[in-house]
Design a protein that fits this description.
The structure is a single chain. The chain is mainly alpha-helical. The protein is 80% helix and 0% strand. It has one domain. The longest helix is centred in the first third of the chain and has 27 residues. The two termini are 15 Å apart.
Amino acid sequence: MTSPEDLERALAADRFYGLFLVLLGVLSALAPLFGGAELAWGLSLAGIAGGCWLLLDRSPRGLFAAAGWVVLCLGLGLQLIWREAVSMEQLAITLAAGFVLLGAAEIVFGLKRFKPHSAPRIALVIGGAAAAAFGVALSLTLPALPNWLGGAVLGLVFAGFGLGVLIGAERRRNGRP
């Protein structure tokens, strides 16, 4: 049984991480207008902050999927930061696979943690589908992919996860799963 203090700490962590991801999503979507998509730093920040969120939240439903999402964000971000260390083919393959897995983890998290037809579940499924579709697009057209598309998709992925967690925190606070 979860104590009221633990529940409040978990809800506060959900609210903070959800808001952080929504803001990071907006910045990611706007980044191409200012010279670059900056996917690497956005993914890295989401992964680092997500690690803190996992330590504070500890909700058992969807924990494995949430941990996978956080690790994938951090891993993809770090790979993009040090992209000169790998060939373009290796980068394309790992980014494509990483975004497909990132999308799958986001969808599984939404399905495990929230009730069917609920707003948080829908937001997470939309964000996850965007990530998976972007991974498929990366595998087909990486060198020719426009910079703005990466920022827009990452904005949608972060905003979907952030809104899902934010809305879910409010629902949990009001006693609805």
